[in-house]
Amino acid sequence: MIKEIIKRNYYASKFYYRLLHEYKWNISKGTILVHTPGHVGSSSVADSVRKNYSDFFFGNIHSLREKLDSNSPPNARFFLQQNIISRLETKKNEPWKIITIVRDPIARAITGFFQALGNYVPDYPLLREILPHKDLLSTLFLRFSEPDQIVFFLKGYSYLWGSVEHQIQWFDKDVQPFFGIDVFKSEFNQDKGYSIFKNKNRELLVIRLENLNVCWENACNDLFGEVIALEKRVNTASERSTYSIYKEFRDNLKVNEKTLLEIYESKYMRFFYNEEELTNMKQIWS
Length: 286
Hints:
By secondary structure, the chain is an alpha/beta fold. It folds into two domains: 2-104 and 170-224, no CATH class; 106-162 and 237-285, no CATH class. It has helices at residues 2-8, 10-27, 42-52, 76-90, 105-115, 124-130, 133-142, 149-154, 160-168, 170-179, 212-224, 243-252, 257-264, 267-272, 275-285, and strands at residues 31-35, 57-61, 96-102, 194-199, 202-208.
């Protein structure tokens, strides 16, 4: 209840983050960020780390360069973003530990698409109030404003390419300018599924979602010097009540060869995944 008020109300958000800012600013031992694109399984990681490091300033955020919508008042996410940017200057000599997660871009785009279905269904607010959560997604999918959801997803790169472009530019636009870490000048350990990159007192753990449940403990120990158990195993679509709809969409989705090459031959993908993994991903969507 309180969290929802903070998220939606400008003044509550400002008051809450001012208190958080003043308290953590002075007593924290450093800063820990879970800084990732959306839809990569970051919630489980953030919940686990936050609980174990309450004496650090902590943030779970998807962008540090997001512009404030002129039609909307600042919200909790905006104030957190501003606090982090301020700390980058004033607390630059303190320890910084940053975690980001990479994922197959098309799989990520599908997850984001399903979570955004309400944007394309006119009576979504009403449906959300009257339907059980387990029935909501299937109803939204059936009431989708376009006659063919897959056509819409692929149409003119409108949804798919917007999501992919954001992800493959992530380290160039959302990491390097803020933390001074250019991961592409180093090497990523594709065998382990994670690597840690450093710039003075800033450490960046990059971990693949596909390996997260297997290698999290080792990665966590390398970053923090101790193992932190994940609060819950990262959800998979097969564990959700809407799996049949999600699976049917994935099974019927076919992406043209040109688009597949643009995605899977990108600098981003070739850095984090080996040739066999890239070939398998392309086969899934071709």
